[in-house]
Amino acid sequence: MANVRSQKAEKVIGRMKMKVNRQMASSLLACVHCGMCTQSCHYVLANPDDPTYAPAYKADKIRKIFKRHVDWTGRVFPWWVSAKSLYTDEDLEELKDTVFGKCTNCRRCSVNCPMGVDYGVFNRMARGALVSVGVMPEGVAVVSKDQWETGNQMGVLKEDYIETLEWLSEELQEELEDESAVIPIDKQNADLVYSINPREVKYDPRTISDAAKIFHTAGANWTMPSEGWDMTNFGLFSGYNELGGSVARRLYEKVEALNGKKLIISECGHGYRSTRCEGPNWAGRDVKFEMESSVITMLRYIREGRIKVDKSRNPEPVTFHDSCNNARSCGLTEEPRELLRLVCEDFREMLPNRAENYCCTGGGGAMSMSEYTPRRLKSGKIKADQLKATGAKVVVTSCHNCVDGLSDLIRHYKLGMDVAQLVNLVANALVLEKRAVVVPEPVVAPSVTEELPLAGRRIVVADDEPDFAEFVAMVLQDAGAEVFTAHNADTAMELARKEKPDLLTLDLQMPGKTGDKVFVEMRTDPELKKVPVCIITGQPEMRALIYDRSVPPPEGYMDKPVREDQILFNVKKILKIPHHDPDDG
Amino acid sequence: MSGTLSFAQYTLQEVALIWMATVYAIRIWWLTRFTAAKERQAPTGTGSAKPTRSIAYSLGNVAMPWAMESTRKRPLYYFQFVLFHLGVVAAISLSFLIPYAPAPWLEPQAVQILFRVLIGGAFVVGMIRIYNRVSDKHMRAISTPDDYFSLILLTVWFFFAFLAAPNDLSRGEGILITFFCLTAFFLVYVPFSKISHYIYYPFTRYYLGKTMGRRGVFPMTRSKPVS
C-alpha cells in the first residue's frame, strides 16, 4: 500500500520538520527553478546529459518533502507544486543517493544562485535526517562511529597517537640537533594548542613534524593535547549536529583544561570550518579563546620575522587549490596565496579560483563513500582540466580531504603532478641557523645498501591489484627492502610463514579469503602474531572489520590512494627507522 | 466607461489587492515563526567585511551581474532577466496608472512607446522562457505545473498589457477588461505560486549575506588571473 509510511520515513520527516530553521525555510521557498545554478556544479559539467545532477533538481528532492509536510500550498495542492512525501525505505535510499552521492555540499551553486538559495545548508540537514535513522553510506557510518567512540574519526588509539608524537619528537631532535626540539604534550598555559587531522597520525606524520619544526624555529610556546586533538568533525559531513557538537565540545574543553590561549587548526578545510565556524553553533556554546588556521599562523611568523624562508628551495611551478570549506564557507583565500608567494618561486593561479574554485570532488565526506567513487572520478574531469591548464608540477592545498581527492584525480587522469600542503612547503623553505654552520664531514663512500633506509628489511606486499602491488613493491625495493608480493590471501600467508618478514602490507579486499580474515589469522598464529601489519585499503568502511576485532590492532593503516612518500614514512614509522629528509643532507 | 470596465479596474482590483496583501502578511508571519539560527562564531576572513556591507552586497546582488559567475558568463540571460522584470514593473504600473493617474500621464506618445517597448520586450522574453523550459531537459526536469502555468500566465498578461497600454477606449473595452481581469486573477494567484519569490528574496539574501559576511566570503572576491 503506497500510503503506508515506514517507521524510518516517518522519523526522517519528523526530524526534517524539526530541523528546518528560518534560513532553510526561506531557501526552500524561494527557488524559482530558473536553472542559473545548473552550470555551476561540477557534477553537471561532467555529466551534461543527466539532469538529475542539476542543483535545483537535487534540492527539489528535499523541497518536495518540505512542501508536502510544511508549506501549505504543497499540503493543499501537492500535484501543482510537485510536493511529494517519503513512504518506503526505498524512498530513503533514493534520497540518500542524491544527498550523499550527488553533492559534495561545496556551495558553489549557493554563491551562484540569484535568489540566494543556500542548497548546501539544507542538503546537509537532509543528510542528518537520514543519518538519524541509520540510512547513510557505509563509510559515513564507520567513520562517525569511530569519532563517537574514540574521539577521532580514524579510530587512532591514544597510545598510537602519543607514540607517534614521541617518535616524531626524537626525529626532530635528531634533525635539528637540538634537545629542546620536542613536541610538547599537554603543556599547561601554552600560547598555542595545535590540533590536527587524524590522517596526519595515520599516514602523513610528516605534516606534524613539519609543523613542529616551524613552531620550534619560531620559538612558539605551544603544545599538542593528548586527547581532544582531532579538529576534524564528521558531523559536518553526516549532517548530524549532535555528533558535530560533541566533537567540537571535546576540543574546546581540552583547550580550556590546558588553559591554552589560542587553538591552532592544522590545514584541513572541513576541520577549519567545523572547529572555527560551525562548532560553537553545534555545541551551543560560546568559545572564549581564539581559533586560527595554521596557514595564518605561519604567515604571521614570516611577517614578524620569527621564521625565515628561502623560496628558492621550492623552485617547481605550483598552483593552489581552494578547499570549498576554506574558501566558500570561511573566507580563507588570500592568506594561503600570500604565503605561497613567500615560499615558492613559481606560483600560478588556476582558473577559476578563490570562492569560485571547483570542488576537488572529495569534499562532503565523499572520500569515505567508496560506493560513489566512479561517479566522483567522472565528475573530477572538471578539476583535472583546471589543474592541467596551469602547467604546474605541484598542486598545493590547505585541506587533507583535498589532498586525497586531488591525488586520486591526478592518478586517474594521469596528470603527473604532486600534491602538497603549505606546511610542507614552508618547512622545506625554512632557513635554519644550524644549516649555515654545518661543516661537511669527510665523505666516506658508503655502499648503496648502507644508505638505503629499508636495507636488510623483508616485506610481504599482499594486494590483488597487480599494478598497485607492483607500485608498493617498487617503492619499498627502491628504499632497499627485499619484497615479496602476493595477489591472494593464501599466497600472503604462505609467504609470511616462509619468509618471516619484518612487515606485511595487507589489502582488505582480496579474492578468496579477505584481508581481515588473513589479519585475524596472523594475529592468532603463534608464529606470525608478532609480524607487524600495515593495512592498505581503498575501502575505508572496512576499517571497522579490523578495529572491531578482539586481536591487537594493526601497526599501520593507510587509505588508498597513497603516495610514495606516505608509504615510506609509514613503513619507517612501523619499523621504527629514523626518517631523514634527503634535502637536509 | 461601462460598468463592467469600471468594476474590473476598480472594485475587482481593490479586492484582489487586499486578498494578496492579506495572504502575503500571513505567509511572512508564518515564515518568521521558524526559528532563526543563532550565530556564535567569531568572524573569519580578512576583517574587511562588515555585516551591513555583506548584507547590502547580498541584497544588491541582483543588480550586479558581474558578481556571480552564473550571470557574468551569460550576459544575454541577464539582459532577459532585466527586461522581463522591467516588463512586470511596467505592467503593474499600468494597472494603477490607467484607473488612478490623471489622464495626461499616459497621453504622450513617448510614454506609450516606453510602456510598449518594456512590456513587449518582456512578452518576447516570456516566449523565449517558455521555449527554454519546454525544450531544455535540465529545465524540464526541474519544472512543476506551477512553473509552466506562472510563466504562461505572465506572458499572456504581458500580451494584454501591451495592447492595453495606449488606454484607447475608441477600439472598445474588451482589451482593458481582459487586462484588468487577468491582473486580478494574477494578484489572487501570485501568493500561492512561485511568482511570490520576491517576498522571500529579502529573507534568503539577508541570511546568506549575514552568514557569508561573517565568514569573510561576501563581498565575494572574483577569480583573479595570476599577475
Describe the structure.
The complex is a heterodimer of chains A (585) and B (227). Chain A is built from 28 helices and 13 strands. Chain A is globular. In chain A, the strands form three sheets. A five-stranded parallel sheet of chain A has the order 10-9-11-12-13, with helices on both faces. Chain A has a four-stranded parallel sheet with strand order 2-1-3-4. In chain A, strands 6-5-7-8 form a four-stranded parallel sheet, with helices on both faces. In chain A, helix 1 (7-19) runs antiparallel to helix 7 and helix 4 crosses helix 7 (119-131). Chain A has four domains: 7-136, Orthogonal Bundle (Fumarate Reductase Iron-sulfur Protein, Chain B, domain 2), CATH 1.10.1060; 148-303, no CATH class; 311-429, Rossmann fold; 448-578, Rossmann fold (3-Layer(aba) Sandwich), CATH 3.40.50. The model of chain A is unreliable at 435-446 (pLDDT under 50). Chain A has 585 residues and is α/β, with parallel strands linked by helices. Chain B has 227 residues and is mainly α. Chain B has a single domain (3-32, 67-214), classed as Fumarate Reductase Cytochrome B subunit (Up-down Bundle), CATH 1.20.950.20. Chain B is 69% helix and 0% strand. Chain B has nine helices and no strands. In chain B, helix 1 (3-32) packs parallel to helix 8, helix 4 packs across helix 5 and helix 7 runs antiparallel to helix 8 (174-189). Chain B starts with a helix and ends in a 13-residue tail after the last helix. The model of chain B has no long low-confidence stretch (mean pLDDT 94). The interface between A and B is large, with 73 and 62 residues.
CATH superfamily of chain B: Transmembrane di-heme cytochromes, Chain C
3D shape of chain A: globular
Principal-axes shape call of chain B: globular
Largest binding interface between chains: A-B, 73 and 62 residues
Mean pLDDT of chain B: 94
As a percent range, the share of helical residues of chain A equals 40-55%
Q: What integer value in Å does the Rg of chain B equal?
A: 21 Å
How does the helix and strand content of chain A classify structurally? alpha/beta
CATH fold naming of chain B: Fumarate Reductase Cytochrome B subunit
How many domains, in number, for the residues of chain B? 1
Helices of chain A, by number, come to 28
Instruction: Return the CATH class of chain B.
Output: Mainly Alpha
Sheet bearing the most strands of chain B, described?
A: none
* Count of extended strands of chain B: 0
Determine Rg of chain A (CA atoms, Å).
Answer: 25 Å
* End-to-end gap of chain B: 69 Å
Strand content of chain A: 5-15%
